[in-house]
Task: structure prediction
Amino acid sequence: MEVFRRWGSGIAISDFGSGHLNKLMLLSANPDFIKIDMSLVRNIHMDENKATIVKGMVSYAQSMEIKTVAQGIETKEELQALLSYGVDFIQGYFIGMPDYEAKGILRQAKEEICRHGIG
Result:
């Protein structure tokens, strides 16, 4: 993964909070970003349990100097809640549709890496 950092890329763990990722795995990955899963984001403004979990994730990430990204924001209320918890970045249909041109560029880069390797 350090090769990607040398190229100026960051490392992100996606769908954080949706699976069995534990803190030891998080530490060994040494990510620059954690992307909070949309299952935690959905209706977070109405669910104190979700809010408590996300606040803890954000606090932990801040203490480790990891940036947070909330995925799947679809309402103004979700956005307001997440910003109040200190989330660094946001994404979702409430903000805007996916950028398919960027996905095409990423796909081309992946194909080049597969053809020529990393180095």
Q: What stands out?
A: Helices lie at 2-6, 23-29, 38-41, 48-63, 76-84, 100-116. The chain has one domain: 2-116. The chain has six helices and four strands. The mean pLDDT is 82.
